[in-house]
Amino acid sequence: MFDAARHAETLRIMELAPVIPVLTVRDVDDGLAQARALVAGGLFAIEVTLRTAAALDIIRAIADLEGASVGAGTILNSSQLEAAQKAGARFAVSPGATERLLDAAEANAMPLLPGIATASEAICLIERGYQFAKFFPAEPAGGAAYVGALASPLPQLRFCPTGGITQESAPRYLALSNIVCVGGSWMLKKEHIQTKNWNAIKFASDAAKELRPPVR
Fold first, then answer.
1. What would the pLDDT profile of 4-59 be if each residue is shown by its tens digit?
2. CA-CA distance, 37 to 43, in Å (whole number)?
3. What is the CATH number of domain 4-118+182-209?
4. What is the pLDDT of residue 3?
5. Cα 22 from Cα 186, distance rounded (Å)
6. Catalytic: 99?
7. Residue in 134, 139, 189, 210 annotated catalytic
8. Alpha-carbon Rg of the chain, whole angstroms?
9. What is the distance between the alpha carbons of residues 14 and 85, in angstroms, rounded to a whole number?
């Protein structure tokens, strides 16, 4: 079971801004430049997916960036969880949750935001004392209508929906009572990264920050 202190830290990170940007990057310098632009625009919690060979090095670099709370995404097993924590990650995010992964998370001091896509998966997390989860993949799994419908029977769990969310669709999620924040990468357009237009990313981050006040 997660303790009260870890729940409080999870909520604190989720409430830093209405959006947690998701980075999948292969170059440390570019990853750090993206993170600087995101933080400058007011998005402080940053998820770096463990989908590239450079991911842990990028987490190490962002961990030293003032104002940033870096997390590790696409956590699939206990080894990745431990490696992410050693690299300086402040939180972890998984696309799903197995008993083995949840056991490892409970033995680790770092907060985990486990992924769910169904009511049954949500109930399994509630049975283990979780109060927060990732709803993934949000749009293909039913969107705002689906996750909003979970609020009445499962009020114990609140979510960060991620997957296919845009600047335009995010407000539909953020208006729901069981949503704390959303995850997305729309502020990190490929053309802006390729041309190193960090000001454009900062501008998009500032717009995302204004989608909803970060604290209810």
1. 888 999 999 999 999 999 999 999 999 999 999 999 999 999 999 999 999 999 99
2. 9
3. 3.20.20.70
4. 78
5. 9
6. no
7. 134
8. 16
9. 18
